[in-house]
Amino acid sequence: MTDPGSLRTGEVTWLDLTSTDPQRSEAFYAELFGWRFESGPIDGYRIATRDGLVLAGLVAAEPGDPLDAWTVYLRADDLVRTYRTATDLGGTPYAAPTAIGDHAAGSVLADPTGAVFALLRPGTFRGLGEVGLPGYPAWFELHSTDATTSIRFHERVFGLETDAVADEPGFRYSTMRDAEGETVFGVVDLEGLVPAGTGSSWAVYFGSADVEADVARAIDLGGRAVLEPVDTPHGRVATLVDPCGAAFNLMRVDE
Q1: Considering the domain boundaries, does residue 57 fall inside one?
Q2: Which DSSP letter does residue 63 get?
Q3: Alpha helix locations (H) across the chain?
Q4: What are the coiled-coil residue ranges (predicted)?
Q5: Are 144 and 112 in the same domain?
Q6: Of 182, 19, 159, nearest to 77 (Cα)?
Q7: What gap in Å lies between CA 188 and CA 172, rounded to an integer?
Q8: CA-based Rg of the chain, rounded to a whole angstrom?
């Protein structure tokens, strides 16, 4: 579990879902994880909560952009400087830094390999209320077609350091840690493992006390299993797609 007040630059401090059918998405995650939804600081933006803690956002996809996907937000206390550094180092800008009153400020861009992410400078809105419990965000990974480039980018933009966890054919994995030694997310090297033209992306994991049961429940609710439950070096996981097409993962965690 992570205390949100301890989150530092470069750590995942928020996530939200862009949906082509927000009502359907809201119903799915409410049933699967026991989330409640309430109005957020922007008209049309919904906030998912559980046990009174904020966990994720939900927003309708823009017309003409039928993409259902989860987006991670990396904390950037000096938002403008971080944004400029990221673009100077080859990041692609999609939305310039914008303040939402005194709630927060953010921007959207992609790393040099095409993985889209957002930056968030917290204000009165502090971001994630808790992680690492069943039904809560639990882990985050950058799945990169050029892991060396992605790692170097995040090291230089956020001052993170890298630990190589595995370097074997078919499984090359690293973790990124902040200046205080806290692991903040993982990096999966997709080079040679995916078809040409596959893009880099972020993967979100939600905690599950019983992965098999939650996979079955997700399917009953209209989701689809992409990867059935399997044991990995990081625990038992599964990959699913929600009824609107957004991919997400389950990870076994203790209650």
Answers
A1: yes
A2: T
A3: 22-33, 79-88, 147-158, 211-220
A4: none
A5: no
A6: 159
A7: 6
A8: 17
Report if residue 132 sits inside a domain: no
Report the candidate in 215, 245, 60, 89 with the shortest Cα–Cα distance to residue 159. Answer: 89
Tokens of 191: 């080079």
- Under DSSP, the state recorded for 104 is E
Indicate whether 43 belongs to any domain: yes
Tens digits of residue pLDDT in 148-178 = 999 999 999 999 999 999 888 778 999 999 9
Same domain, 108 and 167: no
Let me know: does 172 contact 166? Beta carbons within 8 Å.
yes
How many whole angstroms separate alpha carbon 42 and alpha carbon 125?
Answer: 12
CA 175/CA 197 separation, integer angstroms: 25
Provide the 10 A C-beta neighbour count for residue 66. Answer: 11
Q: Which residues contact 212 (CB under 8 A, 6 or more apart)?
A: 229
Structural domain including 153 reads: 137-252
Do 61 and 152 belong together in one domain? no
pTM of the model: 0.93
Q: What are phi and psi of 183, to 5 degrees?
A: -70, 130
Q: Based on the number of CB atoms within 10 Å of its own CB, is 192 exposed (0-12), middle (13-18) or buried (19 or more)?
A: exposed
Name the 3-class secondary structure at 158. Answer: helix
Kindly state the tokens that stand for 4: 């949100």
Question: What is the distance between the alpha carbons of residues 109 and 248, in angstroms, rounded to a whole number?
Answer: 21
Would you state the torsion angle of the CA atoms of residues 192, 197, 200, 203, taken in this order, to the nearest 10 degrees?
A: -90
Q: What letter represents residue 104's amino acid?
A: A
Does a structural domain hold residue 199? yes
